[in-house]
Protein backbone atom coordinates (compact mmCIF):
# COMPACT_ATOMS: atom_id res chain seq x y z
CA UNK A 1 0.00 0.00 0.00
CA UNK A 2 1.40 3.36 -1.05
CA UNK A 3 -0.14 6.83 -0.95
CA UNK A 4 0.55 9.77 -3.22
CA UNK A 5 -0.71 13.25 -2.40
CA UNK A 6 -1.53 16.01 -4.87
CA UNK A 7 1.92 17.54 -4.32
CA UNK A 8 3.44 14.37 -5.74
CA UNK A 9 4.90 12.99 -2.51
CA UNK A 10 4.67 9.18 -2.44
CA UNK A 11 4.86 7.20 0.82
CA UNK A 12 4.85 3.43 1.38
CA UNK A 13 2.39 2.43 4.11
CA UNK A 14 3.05 -1.32 4.26
CA UNK A 15 0.80 -4.30 3.61
CA UNK A 16 -2.76 -4.95 4.75
CA UNK A 17 -4.90 -8.07 4.75
CA UNK A 18 -7.63 -8.35 2.13
CA UNK A 19 -10.69 -8.13 4.36
CA UNK A 20 -13.56 -5.64 4.20
CA UNK A 21 -12.77 -4.52 7.76
CA UNK A 22 -9.10 -3.81 7.02
CA UNK A 23 -9.95 -1.91 3.83
CA UNK A 24 -12.65 0.16 5.56
CA UNK A 25 -10.22 0.97 8.40
CA UNK A 26 -7.52 2.01 5.92
CA UNK A 27 -9.91 4.25 3.97
CA UNK A 28 -11.02 5.86 7.24
CA UNK A 29 -7.43 6.48 8.35
CA UNK A 30 -6.34 8.01 5.04
CA UNK A 31 -9.49 10.14 4.78
CA UNK A 32 -9.01 11.51 8.30
CA UNK A 33 -5.44 12.44 7.39
CA UNK A 34 -6.37 14.28 4.18
CA UNK A 35 -10.07 15.06 4.24
CA UNK A 36 -10.10 14.89 0.43
CA UNK A 37 -11.65 12.55 -2.08
CA UNK A 38 -9.48 9.47 -2.53
CA UNK A 39 -8.67 7.48 -5.67
CA UNK A 40 -7.34 3.93 -5.57
CA UNK A 41 -5.72 1.60 -8.08
CA UNK A 42 -4.32 -1.91 -7.87
CA UNK A 43 -2.96 -4.62 -10.12
CA UNK A 44 -5.40 -7.24 -11.31
CA UNK A 45 -4.51 -10.55 -9.75
CA UNK A 46 -5.65 -13.35 -7.48
CA UNK A 47 -7.86 -11.14 -5.30
CA UNK A 48 -10.04 -10.60 -8.35
CA UNK A 49 -12.31 -7.55 -8.21
CA UNK A 50 -13.34 -7.84 -4.56
CA UNK A 51 -11.17 -4.92 -3.41
CA UNK A 52 -12.69 -2.67 -6.07
CA UNK A 53 -16.20 -3.68 -5.05
CA UNK A 54 -15.41 -3.07 -1.38
CA UNK A 55 -14.01 0.38 -2.16
CA UNK A 56 -17.04 1.22 -4.34
CA UNK A 57 -19.31 0.31 -1.42
CA UNK A 58 -17.32 2.83 0.63
CA UNK A 59 -18.01 5.43 -2.10
CA UNK A 60 -14.38 5.48 -3.24
CA UNK A 61 -13.03 5.63 -6.79
CA UNK A 62 -10.97 2.59 -7.73
CA UNK A 63 -9.47 1.27 -10.93
CA UNK A 64 -8.02 -2.15 -11.60
CA UNK A 65 -4.95 -2.18 -13.83
CA UNK A 66 -3.62 -5.05 -15.93
CA UNK A 67 0.01 -5.77 -14.94
CA UNK A 68 0.97 -5.99 -18.62
CA UNK A 69 -0.29 -2.42 -19.20
CA UNK A 70 1.73 -0.81 -16.40
CA UNK A 71 4.60 1.26 -17.84
CA UNK A 72 7.97 0.01 -16.63
CA UNK A 73 11.46 1.47 -16.84
CA UNK A 74 13.76 -0.45 -19.12
CA UNK A 75 15.99 -2.81 -17.17
CA UNK A 76 13.76 -2.73 -14.07
CA UNK A 77 13.35 -6.44 -13.43
CA UNK A 78 13.25 -6.79 -9.67
CA UNK A 79 9.64 -6.87 -8.47
CA UNK A 80 8.78 -6.27 -4.83
CA UNK A 81 5.49 -5.28 -3.25
CA UNK A 82 7.04 -2.03 -2.05
CA UNK A 83 8.39 -1.02 -5.48
CA UNK A 84 5.15 -1.99 -7.18
CA UNK A 85 3.04 0.02 -4.72
CA UNK A 86 5.20 3.13 -5.02
CA UNK A 87 5.26 2.87 -8.81
CA UNK A 88 1.47 2.41 -9.02
CA UNK A 89 0.89 5.44 -6.79
CA UNK A 90 3.18 7.62 -8.94
CA UNK A 91 1.67 6.43 -12.21
CA UNK A 92 -1.89 6.82 -10.89
CA UNK A 93 -1.20 10.46 -9.95
CA UNK A 94 0.33 11.07 -13.38
CA UNK A 95 -2.72 9.55 -15.09
CA UNK A 96 -0.60 6.97 -16.90
CA UNK A 97 -2.51 3.85 -15.89
CA UNK A 98 -5.01 2.12 -18.19
CA UNK A 99 -7.85 0.51 -16.22
CA UNK A 100 -9.31 -2.80 -17.30
CA UNK A 101 -12.98 -3.54 -17.77
CA UNK A 102 -14.50 -4.89 -14.55
CA UNK A 103 -17.25 -7.50 -14.95
CA UNK A 104 -20.28 -7.68 -12.67
CA UNK A 105 -20.79 -10.69 -10.36
CA UNK A 106 -22.69 -12.75 -12.96
CA UNK A 107 -20.12 -12.13 -15.69
CA UNK A 108 -17.25 -12.93 -13.33
CA UNK A 109 -18.97 -16.16 -12.25
CA UNK A 110 -19.36 -17.18 -15.90
CA UNK A 111 -15.66 -16.44 -16.54
CA UNK A 112 -14.70 -18.53 -13.50
CA UNK A 113 -16.89 -21.40 -14.69
CA UNK A 114 -15.43 -21.24 -18.20
CA UNK A 115 -11.88 -21.13 -16.82
CA UNK A 116 -12.58 -24.11 -14.54
CA UNK A 117 -14.08 -26.08 -17.45
CA UNK A 118 -11.04 -25.40 -19.63
CA UNK A 119 -8.74 -26.45 -16.78
CA UNK A 120 -10.64 -29.73 -16.35
CA UNK A 121 -10.57 -30.42 -20.09
CA UNK A 122 -6.80 -29.90 -20.08
CA UNK A 123 -6.32 -32.18 -17.05
CA UNK A 124 -8.56 -34.86 -18.59
CA UNK A 125 -6.54 -34.79 -21.82
CA UNK A 126 -3.30 -35.11 -19.82
CA UNK A 127 -4.68 -38.05 -17.82
CA UNK A 128 -5.73 -39.85 -21.00
CA UNK A 129 -2.30 -39.32 -22.56
CA UNK A 130 -0.57 -40.64 -19.43
CA UNK A 131 -2.80 -43.70 -19.33
CA UNK A 132 -2.21 -44.41 -23.03
CA UNK A 133 1.55 -44.25 -22.38
CA UNK A 134 1.40 -46.27 -19.15
CA UNK A 135 -0.55 -49.30 -20.39
CA UNK A 136 1.74 -50.31 -23.31
CA UNK A 137 4.79 -50.04 -21.01
CA UNK A 138 3.20 -52.81 -18.96
CA UNK A 139 2.29 -55.00 -21.93
CA UNK A 140 -1.36 -53.96 -22.38
CA UNK A 141 -2.30 -52.98 -25.94
CA UNK A 142 -5.83 -52.27 -27.07
CA UNK A 143 -6.77 -54.19 -30.21
CA UNK A 144 -10.07 -52.42 -30.87
CA UNK A 145 -10.76 -49.74 -33.46
CA UNK A 146 -11.05 -46.56 -31.43
CA UNK A 147 -10.21 -45.50 -27.92
CA UNK A 148 -12.39 -43.94 -25.25
CA UNK A 149 -15.51 -45.83 -26.33
CA UNK A 150 -17.60 -48.18 -24.18
CA UNK A 151 -15.68 -51.13 -25.58
CA UNK A 152 -12.38 -49.47 -24.67
CA UNK A 153 -13.65 -48.78 -21.15
CA UNK A 154 -14.71 -52.44 -20.71
CA UNK A 155 -11.24 -53.52 -21.91
CA UNK A 156 -9.60 -51.17 -19.36
CA UNK A 157 -11.78 -52.52 -16.55
CA UNK A 158 -10.59 -56.06 -17.31
CA UNK A 159 -6.87 -55.27 -17.17
CA UNK A 160 -4.92 -57.23 -14.56
CA UNK A 161 -1.36 -56.36 -13.53
CA UNK A 162 1.30 -58.84 -12.37
CA UNK A 163 2.00 -56.74 -9.26
CA UNK A 164 -0.46 -54.70 -7.20
Could you give a quick summary of the protein structure above?
The strands form two sheets. The chain has a two-stranded antiparallel ribbon. The chain is built from five helices and four strands; from the N terminus they run E-E-H-E-H-E-H-H-H.
Overall description:
This protein is mainly α and about 160 residues long. The chain folds into two domains: about 90 residues, no CATH class; about 55 residues. It contains five helices and four strands. The strands form two sheets. Strands 1-2 form a two-stranded antiparallel ribbon. Strands 3-4 form a two-stranded parallel ribbon. The chain is elongated, with a radius of gyration of 26 Å. The termini are far apart.
Name the structural class: mainly alpha
Provide the β-strand percentage band.
5-15%
Strand order of the largest sheet: 1-2
Beginning-to-end CA distance, first to last residue: 55 Å
Tally of helical runs: 5
GO molecular function: DNA binding; transposase activity
Organism: Paraburkholderia humisilvae
InterPro entries: Transp_IS110-like_N, Transpos_IS110
Pfam families: DEDD_Tnp_IS110
What brief labels describe this structure?
mainly alpha, single chain, 164 residues
Amino acid sequence: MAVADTAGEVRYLGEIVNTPEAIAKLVGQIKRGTGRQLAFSYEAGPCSYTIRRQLRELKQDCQVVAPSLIPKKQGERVKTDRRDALSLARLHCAGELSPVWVPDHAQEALCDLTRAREDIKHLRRQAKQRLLSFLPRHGHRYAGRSRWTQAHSRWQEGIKFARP
